[in-house]
Amino acid sequence: MFKKSILYVLLCLGMFLNLGCLKDKSEVDISSKNWDEILKLASGTKVTFYGWGGDENINRWIDEVVAKDIKQKYNITLERVPMLPNEFLPKLLNEKQLGSEGVIDIVWINGENFFNAKNQGLLYGPFAYKLPNFNKYVDKNSSDVLYDFGYPVEGFEAPYGKAQLVLIGDTAKLDYLPKNHKELLEIAKKYPGKITYPDASDFTGSAFIRNIIYDVVGYEALKDIKPNKEDVKKAIKPALDFLVELKPYLWRQGKAYPSTLAQLDNMFSDGEVYITMNYTPYHVLTKINEGDFSKTAKAFIFNKGTISNTHFLAIPFNAPNKAGALVVINHLLSPSIQAQKYNPKTWGDLPVISSNLLNEEEKKLFENVNLGKEAIPQDVLVKHSIPEMRAELIPIIESLWREVVLADE
Amino acid sequence: MNKKYKLIFPYLLLLPVLLFIFGIFIFGIVNIFLQSFGYFPAVGLKLFSLRYYKEILKDPNFFYSLKFSLYISFISSLLSVILGVLLAYLFLSTYLNDKAKFYNIYKISVIVPHTIAAFLVFTIFSQSGFLSRIFFRLGFINNMVEFYPMTFDTKGIGVILAYVWKGAPFITLITYDILKKLSDTYSKVALNLGANNFQVFWYILFPLVLPTISLGFIILFTFSFGAYEIPYLLGPSKPKALPVLAYIYYKSVNLKDRPYSMVINVFIILFSLVLAFLYILLNKIIKKHGIDR
């Protein structure tokens, strides 16, 4: 009995110590393979897909439609793991430090997280130019494919979809929907306590603040600015002053802000506030369909435009199944998937493939998607889209907002 | 040999899991300390310095947060203890326990995760919540803004409510059995000698369960001091609770901000260590004085 237990202990110890030394020696270098060979390698494998899993509709679509498609077409099992970049990136960083094999094949990522991941050497690539659908359908010279929050992508990511910030107002309660920041202030004065935006630590709240900055000082003022606090503060001072001016008319006199967008949405559904916002432009339709928002909710944007960005798919440096990852990403760039994704009933995400690179049949797929009058048509959105600013400016702006706007008594 | 072996044996059996726990735990803590001194080679920070400590200690926001965290932890733990003991006493005095088991439902809130507690408080006590709606229907308030703000408020009422909802039943759980055992013996004697119910509780039962309650208080306090989700979901935008502040630095795009987060974590750890020490001390005192637990 005693001897046996010692054996167990040693066994466990051995396993524990071995963990760090495991390395996959059988991995094939796929960079020199052509597409047919990659397809062959990928067949019969499993691909894990890590990314934000906060929307049930999107999750269901990936699990039930996309995964089934991929299984049928390529004999690949797709496994979705809901995890945010600020959770899986530290994991990858640790794996890199320990030199261990990974478990993640595809990550859904963009902006600041991409910038960090690429800088730390956590991503495999360049791979995008290997994908047939990328070469066929994506406008490779457009700035929203070449740059991710101002940083060159260089083939380390393939675009997945596009998002654009829209504001959502309740037309039954508001006289008119504001077309710029000045009108927003008027509305806030007219309906004191009925307008607010999420805290800067929230993704959408932060985007809204950046959008106000664009509206007040313009996109150009920040384009080439150095990422230090003094310069940024000087450049965005008028916008910060505006937010301070707006503050007393906001919900709770601007002393508290909803800490998440979900909270703001909740307050909007309850009529506690009259405006909410979303970085997915057709989200409002989904919300109305589900009965969360009243039928009088309507999306709107500022005349000068709103922030838009592209979200991407990337492959970790230690992905165990890189061939499979390439096949899946390629499939996600196909017109049929992009059209399904565009449908507000599934997701309402803007497509990344260019309509002038599609044939008639493929164009039809998009024309058949029924948007409804509460949403803003895609061409209007595209005309009014302003690119995201460089990722390194974002934390500076968030902390300036805390120091100047939130701290203001 | 046999004696020695008997002494070591349980530890041997525990070894694998201990290795695992301590491996992760100590690795984490060592990393926190290293990073708090600015040693984070993964992002190119390789010099040890006290810079981050100095900067955090100079930041008034840190002290606002510390004060706020201490305040919500203290108030919520105190209220939990008071309510929890009263609840336990109530269960005993009404003898519900012998007739029906339905009183067991109080245990539900011990099992429910903190995020759910936050959600419940939000749906009931926010300005557009159930309570506000009922008040509106009854005509006590004319619109929801008149409803006293209990979530995202600087007094932290919502946060405290959520912690009390989780904490009080926990105290009930740990004191109920002790009270039950005690009340049969000591309290009958006291009642026999002419004490009233309040006197029985205050002079006999309360002092006897005090050590257990204190332990419970320390557990609740330490937890709420270091926990992040409830103040994040229900707390005010300013001051932010200490763990929330640490998280904001942690998830900053600029990985070089990570040390600030770790400095705050070091303070949370030190504080928890002090409390853990108190816990052990108290436990020893209890054992020494042979109070039956």
Automatic annotation (TrEMBL), chain B:
Show the stretches that span the lipid bilayer: 12-34, 68-92, 112-136, 156-179, 200-228, 260-282
Single GO biological process annotation from the record: transmembrane transport
User: Pfam families in the record, alphabetically?
Assistant: BPD_transp_1
Task: Report domain ABC transmembrane type-1 positions.
Answer: 66-281
Any idea which UniProt keywords this protein has? Membrane, Transmembrane, Transmembrane helix, Transport
Q: What is its main location?
A: membrane
Q: Which GO terms describe its cellular component?
A: plasma membrane
**Localization:** Cell membrane; Membrane
What is the membrane topology listed in the Swiss-Prot or TrEMBL record?
A: Multi-pass membrane protein
User: Record's SUPFAM superfamilies?
Assistant: MetI-like
Cross-referenced InterPro entries: MetI-like, MetI-like_sf, Sugar_ABC_transporter
Please give the PANTHER family that the UniProt record associates with this protein.
Answer: GLUCOSE IMPORT SYSTEM PERMEASE PROTEIN GLCT, TREHALOSE TRANSPORT SYSTEM PERMEASE PROTEIN SUGA
Family, as annotated: Belongs to the binding-protein-dependent transport system permease family.
Q: Please give the name of this protein.
A: Binding-protein-dependent transport systems inner membrane component
